[in-house]
Design goal:
single chain; mainly alpha; 19 helices; binds beta-D-glucopyranose
Length: about 450
Protein backbone atom coordinates (compact mmCIF):
# COMPACT_ATOMS: atom_id res chain seq x y z
CA UNK A 1 0.00 0.00 0.00
CA UNK A 2 1.30 3.42 -0.89
CA UNK A 3 2.43 5.77 1.83
CA UNK A 4 1.25 9.31 1.14
CA UNK A 5 4.84 10.51 1.32
CA UNK A 6 5.51 8.53 -1.85
CA UNK A 7 2.68 10.18 -3.74
CA UNK A 8 3.99 11.55 -6.99
CA UNK A 9 3.53 14.85 -8.59
CA UNK A 10 1.33 14.73 -11.66
CA UNK A 11 0.07 17.13 -14.23
CA UNK A 12 -3.42 17.25 -12.73
CA UNK A 13 -2.29 18.47 -9.30
CA UNK A 14 0.09 21.02 -10.80
CA UNK A 15 -2.64 22.33 -13.08
CA UNK A 16 -5.12 22.59 -10.20
CA UNK A 17 -2.51 24.46 -8.10
CA UNK A 18 -1.79 26.79 -11.00
CA UNK A 19 -5.46 27.61 -11.51
CA UNK A 20 -5.92 28.36 -7.81
CA UNK A 21 -2.71 30.39 -8.07
CA UNK A 22 -4.36 32.82 -10.52
CA UNK A 23 -6.00 34.22 -7.38
CA UNK A 24 -2.47 35.20 -6.35
CA UNK A 25 -1.96 37.12 -9.61
CA UNK A 26 -5.08 39.13 -8.79
CA UNK A 27 -3.81 39.70 -5.25
CA UNK A 28 -0.49 41.07 -6.53
CA UNK A 29 -2.03 43.00 -9.41
CA UNK A 30 -4.74 44.72 -7.42
CA UNK A 31 -2.47 45.71 -4.52
CA UNK A 32 0.24 46.96 -6.88
CA UNK A 33 -1.81 48.73 -9.55
CA UNK A 34 -3.11 51.57 -7.38
CA UNK A 35 0.33 53.14 -6.85
CA UNK A 36 0.43 54.25 -10.50
CA UNK A 37 -3.32 54.75 -11.00
CA UNK A 38 -3.69 57.06 -8.00
CA UNK A 39 -1.70 59.83 -9.74
CA UNK A 40 -4.47 60.19 -12.32
CA UNK A 41 -7.45 59.37 -10.11
CA UNK A 42 -6.36 62.18 -7.81
CA UNK A 43 -6.54 64.63 -10.69
CA UNK A 44 -9.91 63.46 -11.96
CA UNK A 45 -11.80 63.48 -8.64
CA UNK A 46 -9.76 66.33 -7.10
CA UNK A 47 -8.85 64.43 -3.95
CA UNK A 48 -7.38 65.92 -0.79
CA UNK A 49 -4.42 64.11 0.81
CA UNK A 50 -6.69 62.49 3.35
CA UNK A 51 -9.10 61.31 0.67
CA UNK A 52 -6.15 59.90 -1.25
CA UNK A 53 -4.93 57.98 1.79
CA UNK A 54 -8.42 56.65 2.43
CA UNK A 55 -8.71 55.45 -1.16
CA UNK A 56 -5.30 53.76 -0.95
CA UNK A 57 -6.30 52.07 2.30
CA UNK A 58 -9.68 50.77 1.02
CA UNK A 59 -8.15 47.64 -0.51
CA UNK A 60 -6.25 46.82 2.68
CA UNK A 61 -9.40 47.37 4.74
CA UNK A 62 -11.42 45.14 2.41
CA UNK A 63 -8.73 42.47 2.58
CA UNK A 64 -8.72 42.63 6.36
CA UNK A 65 -12.49 42.06 6.50
CA UNK A 66 -12.49 39.51 3.66
CA UNK A 67 -9.78 37.34 5.16
CA UNK A 68 -11.47 37.67 8.55
CA UNK A 69 -14.67 36.01 7.32
CA UNK A 70 -12.97 33.71 4.82
CA UNK A 71 -12.11 31.03 7.37
CA UNK A 72 -15.75 30.47 8.25
CA UNK A 73 -16.77 30.79 4.63
CA UNK A 74 -14.25 28.17 3.51
CA UNK A 75 -15.27 25.75 6.24
CA UNK A 76 -19.01 26.13 5.65
CA UNK A 77 -19.19 26.38 1.84
CA UNK A 78 -15.94 24.65 0.97
CA UNK A 79 -12.73 25.78 -0.68
CA UNK A 80 -13.95 25.52 -4.27
CA UNK A 81 -17.18 27.49 -3.78
CA UNK A 82 -15.18 30.15 -1.92
CA UNK A 83 -12.85 30.48 -4.91
CA UNK A 84 -15.80 30.74 -7.32
CA UNK A 85 -17.29 33.47 -5.15
CA UNK A 86 -13.94 35.28 -5.07
CA UNK A 87 -13.58 35.19 -8.85
CA UNK A 88 -17.08 36.62 -9.33
CA UNK A 89 -16.46 39.36 -6.80
CA UNK A 90 -13.16 40.25 -8.50
CA UNK A 91 -14.98 40.52 -11.83
CA UNK A 92 -17.82 42.70 -10.61
CA UNK A 93 -15.79 44.94 -8.29
CA UNK A 94 -13.08 45.47 -10.92
CA UNK A 95 -15.65 46.51 -13.53
CA UNK A 96 -17.37 48.86 -11.09
CA UNK A 97 -14.04 50.46 -10.14
CA UNK A 98 -13.06 50.96 -13.78
CA UNK A 99 -16.39 52.68 -14.53
CA UNK A 100 -16.60 54.66 -11.29
CA UNK A 101 -18.06 58.14 -11.56
CA UNK A 102 -17.31 59.33 -8.06
CA UNK A 103 -14.78 58.92 -5.31
CA UNK A 104 -17.40 57.14 -3.15
CA UNK A 105 -18.20 54.63 -5.88
CA UNK A 106 -14.52 53.97 -6.49
CA UNK A 107 -13.80 53.66 -2.77
CA UNK A 108 -16.61 51.13 -2.35
CA UNK A 109 -15.51 49.13 -5.40
CA UNK A 110 -11.91 49.04 -4.16
CA UNK A 111 -13.14 47.84 -0.78
CA UNK A 112 -14.81 44.87 -2.49
CA UNK A 113 -11.74 44.19 -4.63
CA UNK A 114 -9.88 44.11 -1.32
CA UNK A 115 -12.52 41.80 0.14
CA UNK A 116 -11.96 39.39 -2.77
CA UNK A 117 -8.18 39.61 -2.26
CA UNK A 118 -8.67 38.85 1.41
CA UNK A 119 -10.71 35.71 0.73
CA UNK A 120 -8.37 34.63 -2.08
CA UNK A 121 -5.21 35.22 -0.06
CA UNK A 122 -6.49 32.71 2.42
CA UNK A 123 -8.41 30.14 0.39
CA UNK A 124 -5.94 29.65 -2.49
CA UNK A 125 -2.95 28.49 -0.40
CA UNK A 126 -5.27 26.48 1.85
CA UNK A 127 -6.82 24.68 -1.12
CA UNK A 128 -3.44 23.99 -2.70
CA UNK A 129 -2.00 22.63 0.55
CA UNK A 130 -4.98 20.28 0.85
CA UNK A 131 -4.61 18.75 -2.60
CA UNK A 132 -0.79 18.49 -2.61
CA UNK A 133 1.27 15.39 -1.86
CA UNK A 134 3.46 16.29 1.18
CA UNK A 135 6.72 15.96 -0.72
CA UNK A 136 5.80 18.76 -3.09
CA UNK A 137 3.55 20.83 -0.88
CA UNK A 138 6.16 23.56 -0.35
CA UNK A 139 6.64 24.24 -4.03
CA UNK A 140 2.95 23.90 -4.91
CA UNK A 141 1.65 26.18 -2.17
CA UNK A 142 4.37 28.68 -3.02
CA UNK A 143 3.13 28.87 -6.61
CA UNK A 144 0.64 31.19 -4.98
CA UNK A 145 3.41 33.52 -3.76
CA UNK A 146 5.02 33.34 -7.20
CA UNK A 147 1.68 34.40 -8.65
CA UNK A 148 1.55 37.35 -6.23
CA UNK A 149 4.95 38.56 -7.40
CA UNK A 150 3.97 38.10 -11.06
CA UNK A 151 0.80 40.07 -10.35
CA UNK A 152 2.81 42.91 -8.81
CA UNK A 153 5.16 43.00 -11.81
CA UNK A 154 2.18 42.91 -14.18
CA UNK A 155 0.67 45.89 -12.39
CA UNK A 156 3.93 47.87 -12.77
CA UNK A 157 3.87 47.03 -16.49
CA UNK A 158 0.18 47.90 -16.98
CA UNK A 159 0.62 51.14 -15.04
CA UNK A 160 3.51 52.30 -17.14
CA UNK A 161 1.78 51.25 -20.39
CA UNK A 162 -1.32 53.35 -19.68
CA UNK A 163 0.57 56.16 -17.93
CA UNK A 164 1.18 58.16 -21.10
CA UNK A 165 -2.52 58.36 -21.80
CA UNK A 166 -3.23 58.87 -18.10
CA UNK A 167 -5.84 56.14 -18.38
CA UNK A 168 -6.47 54.96 -14.82
CA UNK A 169 -9.71 53.22 -15.85
CA UNK A 170 -7.77 50.77 -18.00
CA UNK A 171 -5.11 50.36 -15.33
CA UNK A 172 -7.72 49.14 -12.83
CA UNK A 173 -9.92 47.49 -15.46
CA UNK A 174 -7.11 45.29 -16.76
CA UNK A 175 -7.71 43.11 -13.71
CA UNK A 176 -10.81 41.75 -15.46
CA UNK A 177 -8.66 39.43 -17.59
CA UNK A 178 -7.04 37.42 -14.79
CA UNK A 179 -10.41 37.46 -12.98
CA UNK A 180 -12.07 35.81 -16.00
CA UNK A 181 -9.32 33.19 -16.22
CA UNK A 182 -9.78 32.45 -12.51
CA UNK A 183 -13.56 32.16 -12.85
CA UNK A 184 -13.45 29.73 -15.75
CA UNK A 185 -10.52 27.76 -14.32
CA UNK A 186 -12.02 27.34 -10.87
CA UNK A 187 -15.20 25.81 -12.27
CA UNK A 188 -13.03 22.93 -13.51
CA UNK A 189 -11.20 22.33 -10.22
CA UNK A 190 -11.79 19.24 -8.08
CA UNK A 191 -13.00 19.87 -4.55
CA UNK A 192 -10.54 19.64 -1.68
CA UNK A 193 -10.55 15.99 -0.52
CA UNK A 194 -9.91 17.13 3.04
CA UNK A 195 -12.95 19.38 3.08
CA UNK A 196 -15.08 16.60 1.58
CA UNK A 197 -13.95 14.26 4.38
CA UNK A 198 -14.92 16.99 6.83
CA UNK A 199 -18.45 16.75 5.37
CA UNK A 200 -18.45 12.99 6.00
CA UNK A 201 -18.52 12.11 2.27
CA UNK A 202 -15.78 9.50 2.36
CA UNK A 203 -16.56 7.82 -0.96
CA UNK A 204 -16.48 11.11 -2.84
CA UNK A 205 -13.20 11.99 -1.11
CA UNK A 206 -11.77 8.64 -2.21
CA UNK A 207 -12.74 9.33 -5.83
CA UNK A 208 -11.17 12.81 -5.72
CA UNK A 209 -7.97 11.50 -4.16
CA UNK A 210 -7.75 8.80 -6.82
CA UNK A 211 -7.96 11.32 -9.60
CA UNK A 212 -5.56 13.73 -7.86
CA UNK A 213 -2.98 11.01 -7.21
CA UNK A 214 -3.70 9.14 -10.47
CA UNK A 215 -3.78 5.85 -8.59
CA UNK A 216 -6.38 3.71 -6.81
CA UNK A 217 -4.04 3.26 -3.88
CA UNK A 218 -5.14 6.13 -1.66
CA UNK A 219 -6.41 4.32 1.45
CA UNK A 220 -3.51 5.32 3.74
CA UNK A 221 -3.93 8.98 2.90
CA UNK A 222 -7.69 8.77 3.29
CA UNK A 223 -7.39 7.10 6.69
CA UNK A 224 -4.89 9.71 7.82
CA UNK A 225 -7.28 12.49 6.88
CA UNK A 226 -10.19 10.78 8.61
CA UNK A 227 -8.13 10.15 11.72
CA UNK A 228 -7.27 13.83 11.94
CA UNK A 229 -10.94 14.81 12.18
CA UNK A 230 -12.05 14.07 15.66
CA UNK A 231 -14.48 16.86 16.22
CA UNK A 232 -16.63 19.23 14.25
CA UNK A 233 -14.83 22.30 13.09
CA UNK A 234 -15.45 25.35 15.31
CA UNK A 235 -13.92 28.56 16.63
CA UNK A 236 -13.75 27.05 20.05
CA UNK A 237 -10.99 24.72 18.86
CA UNK A 238 -8.68 27.73 18.76
CA UNK A 239 -8.92 28.06 22.51
CA UNK A 240 -7.66 24.56 23.14
CA UNK A 241 -4.28 24.62 24.74
CA UNK A 242 -2.67 22.12 22.39
CA UNK A 243 -3.54 24.39 19.43
CA UNK A 244 -1.78 27.42 20.93
CA UNK A 245 1.70 26.59 19.61
CA UNK A 246 0.24 26.59 16.08
CA UNK A 247 -1.31 30.00 16.74
CA UNK A 248 1.95 31.36 18.13
CA UNK A 249 3.99 30.18 15.15
CA UNK A 250 1.51 31.47 12.57
CA UNK A 251 1.02 34.76 14.39
CA UNK A 252 4.76 35.36 14.61
CA UNK A 253 5.22 34.75 10.90
CA UNK A 254 2.24 36.95 9.96
CA UNK A 255 3.68 39.72 12.12
CA UNK A 256 7.29 39.47 10.96
CA UNK A 257 6.40 39.13 7.27
CA UNK A 258 4.93 42.61 7.41
CA UNK A 259 6.85 44.53 10.10
CA UNK A 260 10.18 43.79 8.42
CA UNK A 261 8.98 46.36 5.89
CA UNK A 262 8.42 44.59 2.58
CA UNK A 263 5.52 46.73 1.49
CA UNK A 264 7.40 49.97 2.03
CA UNK A 265 9.53 48.63 -0.81
CA UNK A 266 6.66 47.21 -2.90
CA UNK A 267 4.34 50.23 -2.57
CA UNK A 268 6.89 53.03 -2.18
CA UNK A 269 9.88 51.87 -4.22
CA UNK A 270 9.76 54.88 -6.58
CA UNK A 271 9.61 57.22 -3.58
CA UNK A 272 12.58 55.50 -1.92
CA UNK A 273 14.57 55.65 -5.16
CA UNK A 274 13.79 59.34 -5.57
CA UNK A 275 14.89 59.97 -1.97
CA UNK A 276 18.20 58.31 -2.72
CA UNK A 277 18.97 60.39 -5.77
CA UNK A 278 17.33 58.85 -8.86
CA UNK A 279 16.01 61.93 -10.53
CA UNK A 280 12.91 61.91 -12.69
CA UNK A 281 10.10 59.42 -12.40
CA UNK A 282 11.38 57.43 -15.39
CA UNK A 283 14.58 56.41 -13.59
CA UNK A 284 12.70 55.67 -10.40
CA UNK A 285 10.20 53.50 -12.28
CA UNK A 286 12.98 51.57 -14.03
CA UNK A 287 14.60 50.89 -10.67
CA UNK A 288 11.20 49.79 -9.34
CA UNK A 289 10.74 47.36 -12.21
CA UNK A 290 14.16 45.95 -11.24
CA UNK A 291 12.79 45.25 -7.76
CA UNK A 292 9.67 43.63 -9.26
CA UNK A 293 11.76 41.38 -11.52
CA UNK A 294 14.09 40.37 -8.67
CA UNK A 295 11.03 39.48 -6.58
CA UNK A 296 9.75 37.11 -9.29
CA UNK A 297 13.16 35.59 -10.12
CA UNK A 298 14.10 34.83 -6.53
CA UNK A 299 10.67 33.39 -5.78
CA UNK A 300 11.22 30.99 -8.70
CA UNK A 301 14.63 30.07 -7.28
CA UNK A 302 13.04 29.41 -3.88
CA UNK A 303 10.32 27.05 -5.15
CA UNK A 304 12.34 23.83 -5.54
CA UNK A 305 14.56 24.71 -2.57
CA UNK A 306 11.62 24.80 -0.15
CA UNK A 307 11.18 21.04 -0.38
CA UNK A 308 14.90 20.28 -0.86
CA UNK A 309 16.63 22.40 1.76
CA UNK A 310 13.56 22.99 3.85
CA UNK A 311 11.80 26.00 5.31
CA UNK A 312 14.21 26.85 8.12
CA UNK A 313 17.47 27.20 6.16
CA UNK A 314 15.70 29.38 3.61
CA UNK A 315 14.09 31.53 6.29
CA UNK A 316 17.40 32.04 8.05
CA UNK A 317 19.36 32.80 4.87
CA UNK A 318 16.68 35.11 3.48
CA UNK A 319 16.05 37.12 6.62
CA UNK A 320 19.81 37.44 7.15
CA UNK A 321 20.08 38.95 3.66
CA UNK A 322 17.24 41.33 4.51
CA UNK A 323 18.99 42.33 7.75
CA UNK A 324 22.32 43.03 6.09
CA UNK A 325 20.80 44.99 3.22
CA UNK A 326 18.62 47.15 5.47
CA UNK A 327 21.62 47.92 7.71
CA UNK A 328 23.57 48.89 4.59
CA UNK A 329 20.73 51.09 3.34
CA UNK A 330 20.30 52.74 6.70
CA UNK A 331 24.07 53.41 7.08
CA UNK A 332 24.15 54.89 3.62
CA UNK A 333 21.28 57.23 4.33
CA UNK A 334 23.05 58.23 7.53
CA UNK A 335 26.58 58.79 6.22
CA UNK A 336 26.36 59.18 2.49
CA UNK A 337 23.93 62.09 2.60
CA UNK A 338 23.74 63.40 -0.92
CA UNK A 339 26.68 61.51 -2.41
CA UNK A 340 26.21 59.86 -5.81
CA UNK A 341 27.13 56.56 -4.25
CA UNK A 342 23.88 56.61 -2.32
CA UNK A 343 21.64 55.83 -5.25
CA UNK A 344 23.63 52.75 -6.24
CA UNK A 345 23.84 51.65 -2.63
CA UNK A 346 20.05 52.02 -2.45
CA UNK A 347 19.51 50.01 -5.62
CA UNK A 348 21.84 47.21 -4.53
CA UNK A 349 20.38 47.02 -1.05
CA UNK A 350 16.75 47.06 -2.22
CA UNK A 351 17.38 44.28 -4.73
CA UNK A 352 19.24 42.22 -2.11
CA UNK A 353 16.48 42.90 0.39
CA UNK A 354 13.71 41.78 -1.95
CA UNK A 355 15.73 38.71 -2.97
CA UNK A 356 16.05 37.80 0.71
CA UNK A 357 12.31 38.29 1.25
CA UNK A 358 11.43 36.28 -1.86
CA UNK A 359 13.29 33.19 -0.65
CA UNK A 360 12.07 33.42 2.92
CA UNK A 361 9.22 35.29 4.58
CA UNK A 362 7.45 35.84 1.24
CA UNK A 363 6.52 32.26 0.42
CA UNK A 364 7.12 30.64 3.80
CA UNK A 365 4.64 32.69 5.82
CA UNK A 366 1.78 31.52 3.57
CA UNK A 367 3.11 28.01 3.47
CA UNK A 368 3.41 27.49 7.21
CA UNK A 369 0.08 29.21 7.90
CA UNK A 370 -1.54 26.71 5.54
CA UNK A 371 0.26 23.75 7.13
CA UNK A 372 0.40 24.29 10.83
CA UNK A 373 -3.22 24.25 12.00
CA UNK A 374 -5.02 21.00 12.83
CA UNK A 375 -7.77 20.18 10.37
CA UNK A 376 -10.67 20.89 12.70
CA UNK A 377 -9.62 24.56 13.05
CA UNK A 378 -7.62 24.97 9.86
CA UNK A 379 -10.18 27.25 8.24
CA UNK A 380 -10.70 29.48 11.25
CA UNK A 381 -7.07 29.51 12.37
CA UNK A 382 -5.41 30.26 9.10
CA UNK A 383 -8.13 32.77 8.13
CA UNK A 384 -7.53 34.67 11.36
CA UNK A 385 -3.75 34.70 10.83
CA UNK A 386 -4.09 35.95 7.27
CA UNK A 387 -6.25 38.84 8.44
CA UNK A 388 -3.71 39.66 11.12
CA UNK A 389 -1.10 39.83 8.39
CA UNK A 390 -3.34 42.28 6.45
CA UNK A 391 -3.71 44.32 9.61
CA UNK A 392 0.07 44.70 10.00
CA UNK A 393 0.37 45.36 6.29
CA UNK A 394 -2.01 48.32 6.78
CA UNK A 395 -0.17 49.56 9.86
CA UNK A 396 3.24 49.56 8.14
CA UNK A 397 1.91 51.06 4.91
CA UNK A 398 0.06 53.88 6.64
CA UNK A 399 2.92 54.74 9.03
CA UNK A 400 5.88 54.63 6.61
CA UNK A 401 5.86 58.27 5.50
CA UNK A 402 5.16 59.47 9.03
CA UNK A 403 8.10 57.40 10.31
CA UNK A 404 10.35 59.07 7.72
CA UNK A 405 9.25 62.47 9.07
CA UNK A 406 9.70 61.43 12.68
CA UNK A 407 12.86 59.30 12.59
CA UNK A 408 14.49 60.21 9.30
CA UNK A 409 15.30 57.72 6.52
CA UNK A 410 18.22 56.07 8.29
CA UNK A 411 16.16 55.70 11.49
CA UNK A 412 13.11 54.28 9.72
CA UNK A 413 15.04 51.56 7.92
CA UNK A 414 16.86 50.80 11.14
CA UNK A 415 13.50 50.04 12.77
CA UNK A 416 12.69 47.46 10.07
CA UNK A 417 16.22 46.14 10.48
CA UNK A 418 15.73 45.54 14.19
CA UNK A 419 12.52 43.69 13.30
CA UNK A 420 14.56 41.47 10.96
CA UNK A 421 16.95 40.59 13.78
CA UNK A 422 13.98 39.69 16.01
CA UNK A 423 12.57 37.62 13.14
CA UNK A 424 15.80 35.61 12.95
CA UNK A 425 15.62 34.85 16.66
CA UNK A 426 11.97 33.88 16.29
CA UNK A 427 12.84 31.43 13.51
CA UNK A 428 15.77 29.95 15.41
CA UNK A 429 13.76 29.26 18.53
CA UNK A 430 10.24 28.50 17.34
CA UNK A 431 9.84 27.55 13.68
CA UNK A 432 9.63 23.82 12.98
CA UNK A 433 10.94 22.24 9.79
CA UNK A 434 7.80 21.07 7.96
CA UNK A 435 9.54 19.86 4.80
CA UNK A 436 8.10 16.53 3.58
CA UNK A 437 5.99 15.97 6.72
CA UNK A 438 2.31 15.14 6.28
CA UNK A 439 -0.20 17.62 7.68
CA UNK A 440 -1.57 14.81 9.83
CA UNK A 441 1.87 14.17 11.43
CA UNK A 442 2.17 17.85 12.35
CA UNK A 443 -1.26 17.62 13.93
CA UNK A 444 -0.48 14.54 15.95
CA UNK A 445 2.71 16.19 17.25
CA UNK A 446 0.67 19.20 18.31
CA UNK A 447 -1.74 16.94 20.17
CA UNK A 448 1.17 15.17 21.84
CA UNK A 449 2.48 18.51 23.13
CA UNK A 450 5.78 18.30 21.23
CA UNK A 451 7.74 21.56 21.53
CA UNK A 452 7.36 24.07 18.72
CA UNK A 453 10.74 23.61 17.04
CA UNK A 454 10.11 19.85 16.78
CA UNK A 455 6.58 19.83 15.37
CA UNK A 456 7.86 18.60 12.03
CA UNK A 457 9.72 15.57 13.39
CA UNK A 458 8.29 12.07 12.78
CA UNK A 459 4.99 11.80 14.60
CA UNK A 460 4.67 10.96 18.28
C1 LIG B 1 3.01 39.63 1.11
C2 LIG B 1 2.60 40.93 0.52
C3 LIG B 1 3.72 41.46 -0.34
C4 LIG B 1 4.18 40.44 -1.34
C5 LIG B 1 5.40 40.88 -2.07
C6 LIG B 1 3.36 38.69 0.02
O1 LIG B 1 3.72 37.44 0.55
O2 LIG B 1 1.97 39.10 1.92
O3 LIG B 1 2.27 41.83 1.56
O4 LIG B 1 3.31 42.61 -1.01
O5 LIG B 1 4.44 39.20 -0.72
O6 LIG B 1 5.90 39.89 -2.93
Amino acid sequence: MQNQNDARLNFFVVLAAMIAGVAGILFGFDTGVISGAILFIKGQFVLSDTQEEILMAMVLLGALVGSGVSGRFADVFGRKVSLIFTALLFLIATLVSAFSISMIMLGAARFFVGFAIGVASFVAPLYISEISPPKFRGALVSLNQLAITVGILLSYGVDSYFANAGNWRWMLGFGVFPALVLFIGVLLLPRSPRWIVLQGRINTAREILRSLRQTDDVEVELEDIQASITEKSSWRGLFKKWVWPAIFIALGLAFFQQVTGVNTVIYYAPTIFEMSGFHGSQAAIMATVGVGVANVVFTIIALPLLDLWGRRPLLLTGVLLMTVSLAFLSLNFYFAGASVLLKWAALISMITYIAGFAISLGPIMWLIIAEIFPLEVRGYGSGLMVSISWFFNGVVTVTFLTFIDLFGKAGTFLIYDVMCVLAILFVIFFIPETKGVSLEAIESNLRAGVKMRDLGLPRK
